[in-house]
Amino acid sequence: MKKISIIIPNWNGRNILGSCLGSIKHQSYRSFEVIIVDNGSTDGSINYVKKEYSQYKIIVLKDNVGFARAVNVGVKASRGDLVALLNNDTEADKHWLREIANAAVRHPEATFFASKMMDYKRRNIIDSCGDAMTWTGRSYKIGEGKKDSAKYQKERYIFGACAGAAAYRKEFFDKVGYFDEVFFAYLEDVDLDFRAQLLGLKCLFVPSAIVYHIGSATAGRGSGFAFRQMIRNHIFLIIINFPIRYLWHYGAKIIYSELRLLAAAWREGYLGEYLRAMGDVLVNFKRMLAKRASVQRNIKISFIELSKVVEAEFVYKPISQAAKDALESSSGTD
């Protein structure tokens, strides 16, 4: 029986931790450890966990260092054969871990695994069946907002896993590295997915591994911080991961997508946040180029195979709807 390490990053999540940790306590698969990495919470989260879930390990960080670094700290402290990441605003089905473990045994060729994330309140509506990426620079959650159906009930290989409910073989991090901490929060999982794909690693969607997700419970929907992070991080992602031939081939589409985001920011009164994001990109540009050089020289996958997992087109919504979606989504969709 494989041991699974469950990493739960937390920042001021006292009011939602009970549902998350309670669902872990009642998992049918029993070979697991729980590591809660607290990002400098001030709402009593630490005392709550120590009192109600003293059997779980808690790592207390002095400040809010972001999702990426908190997860990295947890992964490095883990002892399991598989590392499962779980957001604090989730409730895992009682068989979630069992289904992840079984999939890992059935598919030794898969290196990481995406759960089926369902809406916490509308439990027949999909939140995410993993991440998809396009050469326009846009990523999106597979199945988001759709009613669950046979289409989303089959195992298949996809671009990547949403880190809100994902699992990785321990050796994954030896091959790919950890979450890029410059991302701080948002799209760091898509960046990790992309780096894994460039190395030829496979991500399996496991539809029977179900987690219910509240979404944006910490940063909040419509947060200017979330919007700014999403804008800067998707540009970081493109700079680091897109091979040069795709930058040239899809350059016009990438620019068009960026202009749409600029229009969305202007429409919703977030132009200042957009410009601050661009400032962050300029400040970190040389750093991103250094990261790009490291990633690009280690590509193992053929361009033909890469084109099978990164999509050529993106279905755009009207700017009015795109603006609202961009402010409410951490996936960078529009």
Percent helix: 40-55%
What do we call the CATH homologous superfamily of the largest domain?
Answer: Spore Coat Polysaccharide Biosynthesis Protein SpsA, Chain A
Query: SSE string, helix = H, strand = E?
Result: EHEHEHEEHEEEEEEHHEHHHHHHEH
Name of the CATH class of the largest domain: Alpha Beta
CATH topology of the largest domain: Spore Coat Polysaccharide Biosynthesis Protein SpsA, Chain A
Query: What low-confidence regions span 5 or more consecutive residues with pLDDT below 50?
Result: 329-334
The separation of the N and C termini measures 42 Å
Main sheet specs? 10 strands, mixed
Count of discrete domains: 2
Shape: globular
Number of strands: 13
Strand content: 15-25%
Q: What's the CATH architecture name of the largest domain?
A: Alpha-Beta Complex
How would you classify the helix and strand content by structural class? alpha/beta
What's the average pLDDT? 91
The number of helical segments is 13
Radius of gyration: 19 Å
Could you please describe the fold and organization of this structure?
The protein is of the alpha/beta class. The chain folds into two domains: 4-213, Spore Coat Polysaccharide Biosynthesis Protein SpsA, Chain A (Alpha-Beta Complex), CATH 3.90.550; 224-328, no CATH class. It is built from 13 helices and 13 strands. The chain has helices spanning 14-25, 45-52, 67-77, 96-106, 170-176, 188-198, 224-241, 244-249, 251-267, 271-283, 285-296, 303-309, 319-328; strands spanning 4-10, 32-39, 57-61, 82-86, 90-92, 112-119, 126-128, 131-134, 139-141, 156-158, 165-169, 203-213, 310-311. Strands 1, 2, 3, 4, 5, 6, 7, 10, 11 and 12 form a ten-stranded mixed β-sheet that branches. Strand 2 (32-39), helix 2 and strand 3 (57-61) form a beta-alpha-beta unit. Helix 6 (188-198) packs parallel to helix 7 (224-241), helix 7 packs parallel to helix 10 and helix 7 (224-241) crosses helix 11 (285-296).
